[in-house]
Sequence to fold (497 residues):
Amino acid sequence: MAKKNQANKDKKKQDAKQLDSIVKKQFRFLNVIVFLLFVLALGAVGAYFYYVKGEPMNAWLVDAAVVGGTLFLFGLVVLITVGLRGSHAQKLVSQAAEQEMGELRAGTRRAESLQQMASTMRSTLSFERVVEVALDACTVVMDEFNVPARAMVGAVFTYEGGGRRLTPVAERQLEPNKNQFATGQQGVIAEALKYAEPIVSNDPRSDPELGEFSGLRKCKTAVVIPLRVGFELYGVMIVGSQVQISIDAGHLELFTSVADQTVIALRNAQLYQAVEQQKQRLIDTSNEERKQLARALHDGPTQGVAAIAMRINFVRSLLKNEPDMAADELAKVEELAKNTGKEIRGMLFTLRPLLVVDQGLSAAVQKVIERLNETDGLNIQFRGSEYGDLLNQQAQMTVFQVVEEALGNARKYSRAKTIDVRFWQEEDLFVARIQDDGVGFDVDSVMDGYSERGSLGMINMEERAKMIDGSIQVESSVGQGTAITLVVPLEKNGQRA
Fold:
C-alpha cells in the first residue's frame, strides 16, 4: 500500500512538471511570433510608402515607427495576457497537485492506521482489546468526512443469550440502557444480517431498533456492517454520525475491511477464551478429583492399614500370653488386608482404567459393577453392552468415567435396592442411562449452590460430557429414584469419526 501511494505521488509530480514545461514552451513561442510580426509590419509599411506612394525613406519611417510601435504594444499586451493566463494555469495545476498530494497523504495515513489496526488485532487475544481497536479504526474512516470524535457514535454488538439477541460489548457514545440489546429482527440491522452486507440509514431515529439507543437517536447517518466469516454471523458493527454525511461505495468497502479484520480477531479471541475456560475447568475437575481421592484414601485404605497395624500389635502380645488365640487374630488380619487391597485396586482402576484400553468400555463397566456388587452388596444390572463398541477410545474412556461417577453417587446417597445401567443407540447418538430406585432428590434445590458443597460429582460428569460434545440430563424427585442420561454424538466420537 505504501509503495503504491509513493508511486502515485511521483506520477502527480511528473504530470505537474510536464504541464509547466508545456506552458513555458508556449510562452516562448508567442514571443517569437510577436517579434516576427513586428519585423514584417515594418517591412510592409516601408514597402508601401516607397513603392506605391513614391515617398522617400525618411518620410515613411515615422509612419512605420507608429504602426510598428502600435503592433509592438499589441504584442506586449498579448504576451502579458498569455503570461498571466499561463501563471494562473500553473497556479491551478499546483493547487490540483497539492490537493491530490493531500488526498494521497490522507490515504497513506488511513492505510497506515488500518495496517496498524490489523497488526494489533493479529497480536492480541483479548476480546475487549479487539473491539476497542475496531472502533478506533472506524474513527479513522470518519475523519475523512471531517466528523469530530465527539460527533461519532460507534458500537460492536455480538450474539449473546444463545444467539437470540445482539448485546453491545463495546461502544462510543451509544448511551445504552442497562442490559439493553437488539434482536436483529427489524430495520437496517435485520437487512444487513439478511443480505450480509453493510446498509446505510439516513434516518436512524426512525429505525425500530437503532432508534432505541439514545446515542443513535442523535445521529443523522448510520451504517450497519455485519460481522461474519463465511456464512457464520458473529454480530454487527454500527457507526453513526451526528453530522449529515454521504457514504459512498469506497467508504463502505473500508468499513467492510475493518469488519472482516475484526470478526477474525474476535473469533480467535473467543476460541482462546474458550480454551482458557476449558483449561480452568479441567484444572478444577482435577483438583476436585484429588480431593475425592484424598478423602477416599483417608476413609478407606488408610483406616484399613491402621487397623492392620493395631491387630498385628495385638497378635504380637497374644503370641507371648495366649498363643492359641493368635491364629484366629491372624486370620482376621489376613481378611482385613485382602479387603484393603481390593479398595486400593479399585482406586487404581478408577485413576487409570487400563481395562477400557485393553478390553473396551463394556468390559470395564462390567468390572466396576462386579466390584460394587461384591463390596457393597448392590444389585446392579447391565444391558446393551454391545453398543459400547460404537465409540472411539477417547469417548469410551469419558463415558466410563461418567458411568462410574454416577454409580458412585448412587452407592453413596441413593439407598437403592436396584440400579440399572443401559447402553443403546438412537439414530446418530450413543446413549447411556444409569437409573436407581432409591430415595431420589429435588434437582433444583440440590443444584443451587452445588459448587459450594464438598462434592462436585454432577459438575464433573457435565464437564466430562462436554469434552466429547455430549450432554447430561438428570431426572429425579423425592421418593422416586434418580436417572442420569448421557448422550454422545457418534458423528464426532464414533469408531469411524
